[in-house]
Amino acid sequence: xxxxxxxxxxxxxxxxxxxxxxxxxxxxxxxxxxxxxxxxxxxxxxxxxxxxxxxxxxxxxxxxxxxxxxxxxxxxxxxxxxxxxxxxxxxxxxxxxxxxxxxxxxxxxxxxxxxxxxxxxxxxxxxxxxxxxxxxxxxxxxxxxxxxxxxxxxxxxxxxxxxxxxxxxxxxxxxxxxxxxxxxxxxxxxxxxxxxxxxxxxxxxxxxxxxxxxxxxxxxxxxxxxxxxxxxxxxxxxxxxxxxxxxxxxxxxxxxxxxxxxxxxxxxxxxxxxxxxxxxxxxxxxxxxxxxxxxxxxxxxxxxxxxxxxxxxxxxxxxxxxxxxxxxxxxxxxxxxxxxxxxxxxxxxxxxxxxxxxxxxxxxxxxxxxxxxxxxxxxxxx
Length: 382
What we know:
Blueprint lengths: L8 E4 L5 E8 L5 E8 L2 H16 L11 H12 L6 H19 L9 H13 L4 H20 L7 H4 L15 H10 L6 H10 L3 H6 L5 E2 L4 E4 L2 E5 L2 E5 L8 E4 L2 H13 L30 H15 L8 H12 L4 H8 L4 H8 L4 H21 L1
Antiparallel strand pairs: 1-2, 2-3, 4-5, 5-8, 6-7
Helix pairs in contact: 2-3, 3-4, 3-5, 8-10, 8-12, 13-14
């Protein structure tokens, strides 16, 4: 039976490769006959069907043969520039360079299929990549192909259609309120005591605590303002914008924290500047500094934390887990979730609930005990 117009032609070449031909509509409205090839009939048929589906959606055919590698470079330099944080851009670049380009870089974007992506991910697994890395590759590639869809280079995002590995992040180990208090008591004379006091009292991010300046603290009216963070970017320590708009916040300056800040300033010979919570980024005048007065590197604070944890005889946890600890203490003290969200600077209340606030065995024991007492009292009464 004769094929209708637009159905395309599939045939096998003398070289053994399969080819398919069909007509497409270009951006200028002209019609052109094109040819695509693949190693198997099934693969070339899928490519052909993708082109036909684009025609049905009246999407113009792009004659520019973007490779995945070239389009990723374009996406990072032209689309993502000034949209994502430097640390996020560095993470994306590492994933692209080390994992995506080696297995998919030479493929043509518009011809990319689900089997192509699946084979690439399987190859990464064979190389020993973890499920977490596989998921990150899918996430970055999917974001890039979504951009390609908006620019009408592809009609579907094949990275969203590929099977994702079942990955469950490990439960974050945290301290109890008693353990946190013991830690602060043990290190009360340490030069970095103020840093850990801020982390545990307010649940600040490490970079936020390191970025706090004396000029951000209103000692007279009792507030401190989170306006920036310190991070390591490109081999140097810089002041950076906060993670989200909700990260900019005003927090009450508690009496013990106020005393500790004043003692810290006196011990380091700091003349307190006028209160001026500027949004301008600066590494000058930070509360927490190195021994030579420069902004403290985040990783150095982490190293000091590990040493001090061992000294206090406490279970080893990650320094970021102090933020989880503070969030869980807020929960155990029955602080409303909305207030906890604002204190922690989360954009979404579900982040506070589902990621940062953890269950407490003591709280659970108390709750179940209350249920038990209620039931047995009613049984006795009846």
